[in-house]
Amino acid sequence: MKRILFSLFLFFLLFWAVLWAQTNANSTARFQVDSLLQEKKYTAAAALIYKQPQSDRDTLWKDFETATLDSAYIQDSALLGIAILDTAIFQLQRTSRADSIARFWRLKAHYHKTLEQFFEAIEAYLMAIRIYEKNGETGSDLALCYNRVAQIYIRRNDYDKADEYLKSSIEVDTAKEYWLSSYSQLANNAYWRDSFDLGLYYFEAGKKCRGEESSLAALRSAGANILIKKGRLQEARTLIQQALEFYQKEENQHHIIRCFTGLAYIAERMGKMTEAEQFYLIARQTANIFAQRYQKSRELAKFYCEWGDFLSRQGRTKEAIHLYQQALVQAYPDFEDLDPAVNPKPAIVPTETWAMYAPARKASLLLLNPTPQNRALAADCFSLAFAAAERLRLTYGAANTKIYFAQSTYDLKREAALNLWAMYREKGDAANLNRLFDLLEQNRANALRDALLEQKAMVSTGIPDSLLRIEDGMRREIASTQNSLAEADTAIIKQLQSYIDSLDRRHEDLLRILKNKYPRYREYLEAGQTANLDWIRTALPPKAALLTFFDAGDRYLCLTLRHIGSISAYEVPRDSVFDTTFARFQALLSDKTGQESNPAAFFDAAYFLKQRLLPSEVLKNSEALIIVPDGRLSYLPFEALLTAPHKGAYGKAPYLLRSHTVQYAWSAALLAEKPVQSLPGKPLLHVAPFPSVARDGLAALPNSLNEKPEDAVADHLQGDQARADTFLRDAAAYDVLHLSTHAHAGQREKPGIEFVDRTVSLPEIYAQRLNASLVVLSACETNAGEFAEGEGVMSLARAFAYAGARSLVASYWSVNDRSTANLFSAFYRHLQDGLSKSEALRQAKLDLLDEAGADARKAPYHWAAFTLSGSDGPVALPKDGWPWWAWALG
Length: 890
Description:
The protein is α/β, with parallel strands linked by helices. It is built from 37 helices and 16 strands. The strands form four sheets. Strands 7-6-8-12-15-16 form a six-stranded mixed sheet, sandwiched between helices. Helix 9 runs antiparallel to helix 10 (196-207). The longest helix has 37 residues, at 2-38. The N and C termini lie far apart (115 Å). Residues 15-25 and 72-76 have low confidence and may be disordered.
């Protein structure tokens, strides 16, 4: 027994000795680390921490973080904080435990965000996210990174991206620490996109979460904004007052200002104008305190704009203009002039939302008194607003976000265009037409132009093929998963969406790496594209006229540009007669029975619209028309209009087609773009999945095999060989793609192109990188789709253009199989004879009109659906068989 007790005594004595030694070692290590940190020897401190046991490192790293934060804050220098963290990250990346430095990337991101270096902040947050995910970690730290990235995207008005990161934050936040914050931001995002029911859902979800008082106050503010839109004003007022109570306790001035402006707006909605103004005056007192600390602030710019909006609605225009001028001072860093007759210089436009809104609202009020001086000043204000809009647009990654942004600023574009038009009409000054042309071009099809610019940058700035293949694979995988998502069961939708989000982030990471590693690539993208009038003019053929239309609401404006000479313009009033005739003509175009039964109605409408849309002087001295349409004109085949009154046969009608070739473009600048130089591809791929049988209720297309000349060199995907994955794999190798199949755009839930085994969806088309000079979509409604203001028709044809096709032939309505086969057989025959794409299509249509047969088969229903969009020029289509010299040698 004594022996046992003695052994236990020795064991405890040894245990306490080891514990004492470890504690002493820990104390010594902590003392040494503290000493190094006090001496600002951060590299040495980091190296020492990594020599300690794993169990002690967390405590020492917290000391390190505290020291770096304190050092930076004491000197009020975020730049110092970044330098310190760079030193630590560099040291730690040299160790075997470099995967545990996510917290330092997170702190670095915080400092970049403080300096409003948002691109660098996102990069640092994503580095932290990558480390957390690599280690399989979830929890509050990872959730915070997602949340903070979302905040930056919100600042840039990229609400789709913000939603993606906020939902990821909720998903990984197992402790639910940031759920309240994320739901409040989701509610706010929904509010800004006018999705008030969705916003209310997020608000109610957030109310069930625990969290910091600041997040609860933010949720209440977001909920109040939504309830105001729903007309529940008293509930909204209560929520704002609750949020205000917290912000006043915290002395958070910019949120106090927001609360008072919210209360002012509610009072205005209730008809209490005196009370509303009192709230604005109280908010100004807080704003003055805030301005003493922050001389320039976006919050103050927003406040002055909102107060200016209130005064504008009250008819107090002069006071409102002065407030918008104060907003300009706050939004533009180097601008201090409070005189409304003075504007900032466009060269100093910041990447800031209120740098766009403030000059735009000032311009709108100036135009309430449209003197020549006010019009000129307003035009300069609009130029500032669009320069800021362009800076903002370049920060957006996703195409759908760019399209949403273009739509949200379209009314602003219309007001600016009408002002320049009025200035031109008053003075006849061609300089204003030049400005109008630039305005229209700079705000047209930008998402498409950006996509093509990125493709060109990819292949022309020295990025290795190996990286290009990786990027291509990522895009295809994202598209394929999106395709699966559309058909997935409810049980796995969330899993697939999470995987898509992960793929998107990996793709963003790769693009970010490319921008950092290949400066030419980044410079190419940031340089953008400038729509220069002279540059576009020199790209026009000598006998062509470029017609750029703009839907200004009550009229169409049309600017006409030729290879030589000054720009000219005219307007087309949109009265009830025009709109009624246009609607009738558009309905008749796709109505085979209507054309056969009432040709007079078609001819009358066709001649009336030509007289309105294309005055005779526009057609003089030109043989070709290049039309950039807008609004409802985007669905009009101009070549079917009549140049003279007509009664009689369709085959003898004086269509515009007989005197002019006609092609279309999404923007004039795209016509002047030089294509990417690529290796010569195979001549032609002819796709015909349904020559004899079809699937899923789709009709067989027996004439689809006849849509090319028999002697053209071509590869074929016919019948069972016409599989979707085969086409997606091989399409980039061909110069011409001809798809003779079924298609649908907007009629079903899943628009796309039909193959023998499945539908190729829009995302899969967008993900392609084509080298085709021509894509022919011989299918129904491939040029139809929803019109997006500022961007164009969201059609299947546009998807192929986005993928890199330089020109497309596509259809507006459901087409006849036999007539289509005859048309394209002639089209390719004329291409082989050396005609340009536009002229070959014109001659093919004329062949159909001149051939023998029933006149009913010459009606525009059979040939006018197909139009050419994009660049013109010849296409090399070699003939099959031996060349002449081989026959001679034989």
